């Protein structure tokens, strides 16, 4: 391969260098733009996350002020918990996607920049070598022309020297051809690397676009707004339940007061009843004692009456016998 081949190789390397610089600038601009978009989206998501955390803490403080009351029912608490978990999960997924995309872009950009810088350094070295080779070839062609012009006036010694020098130059040309082949191989490998970098750029362009990220962000905001509306409805229900609970508490207080009054009356009644029962028991005991005394007296009276009756019968019998005896005596006297 001659001087024209070396110049073509030099032009190819130079063109490849220019293309790689343009591709690097465009790719760096695209990566920076995507990173700015992703950072803006991450900031928006962080702001939404801060709003949710602030809302949760404000709700916790409000619950601490009203710790003596149960504001939400089981279903409402479950709905609130599921809504907050869904929102936090969406935010965390979006943030992780954005951060992963930013890290991938940074790593890819760093890899591509490193590869391009390495390729540029190699191309610069090849350019220097090609320029040196071209200079040496031009010098050799100039010396050959000068030697041809003055060849007739030189002697045999000069011819021998020229033959040696020619052999040296041929060896040098052979070495330069080998170097040129190596340089062409390097240029082809650099061209392949540049095409691979372009392929990487095309693959990187398959990341979610700004429109898709914006749609995801809008959808997340809509979900947050719906969750806020649900929380507002839950707050309204909680206030209504608070009013109903206060009313029930007042009614329960009134019932407790009434029950306490009734309980006091019942205690007084039971106390009076027990006192009356004790008095009745004492009266019954006294009556039983008196009854026993009366029974005893009655028994004594009955016994005395029985004895008196027996004595009366005995006396009557004696009186009858005496009357009979008197009658007999009277009869005897009359006779």
UniProtKB/TrEMBL annotation:
<feature type="domain" description="Kazrin N-terminal">
    <location>
        <begin position="167"/>
        <end position="334"/>
    </location>
</feature>
<protein>
    <recommendedName>
        <fullName>Kazrin N-terminal domain-containing protein</fullName>
    </recommendedName>
</protein>
<feature type="region of interest" description="Disordered">
    <location>
        <begin position="137"/>
        <end position="167"/>
    </location>
</feature>
<dbReference type="InterPro" id="IPR059089">
    <property type="entry name" value="Kazrin_N"/>
</dbReference>
<dbReference type="InterPro" id="IPR037614">
    <property type="entry name" value="Kazrin"/>
</dbReference>
<dbReference type="Pfam" id="PF25986">
    <property type="entry name" value="Kazrin"/>
</dbReference>
């Amino acid at each position: 391969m001659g001087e024209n081949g070396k110049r073509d190789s030099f032009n190819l390397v130079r063109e490849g260098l220019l293309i790689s610089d343009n591709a690097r600038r465009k790719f760096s601009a695209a990566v920076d733009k995507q990173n700015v978009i992703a950072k803006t989206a991450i900031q928006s998501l962080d702001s939404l996350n801060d709003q949710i955390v602030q809302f949760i803490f404000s709700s916790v403080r409000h619950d601490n002020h009203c710790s003596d009351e149960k504001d939400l029912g089981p279903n409402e608490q479950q709905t609130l918990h599921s809504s907050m978990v869904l929102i936090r999960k969406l935010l965390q997924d979006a943030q992780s996607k954005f951060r992963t995309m930013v890290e991938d872009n940074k790593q890819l950009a760093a890899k591509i920049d490193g590869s391009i810088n390495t390729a540029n350094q190699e191309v610069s070295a090849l350019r220097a070598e090609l320029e040196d080779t071209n200079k040496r070839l031009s010098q050799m062609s100039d010396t050959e022309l000068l030697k041809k012009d003055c060849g007739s006036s030189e002697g045999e010694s000069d011819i021998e020297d020229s033959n040696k020098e020619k052999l040296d130059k041929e060896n040098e040309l052979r070495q330069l051809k080998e170097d040129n082949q190596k340089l062409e191989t390097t240029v082809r490998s650099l061209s392949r690397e540049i095409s691979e970098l372009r392929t990487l750029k095309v693959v990187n362009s398959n990341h979610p676009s700004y429109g898709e990220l914006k749609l995801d962000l809008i959808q997340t905001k809509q979900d947050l707004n719906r969750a806020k509306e649900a929380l507002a409805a839950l707050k309204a229900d909680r206030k209504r339940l608070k009013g109903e609970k206060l009313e029930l508490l007042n009614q329960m207080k009134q019932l407790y007061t009434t029950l306490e009054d009734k309980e006091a009356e019942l205690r007084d009644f039971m106390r009076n009843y027990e006192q009356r029962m004790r008095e009745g028991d004492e009266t019954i005991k006294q009556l039983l004692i008196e009854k026993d005394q009366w029974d005893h007296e009655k028994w004594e009276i009955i016994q005395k009456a029985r004895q008196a009756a027996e004595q009366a019968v005995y006396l009557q019998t004696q009186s009858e016998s005496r009357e009979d005896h008197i009658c007999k005596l009277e009869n005897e006297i009359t006779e």
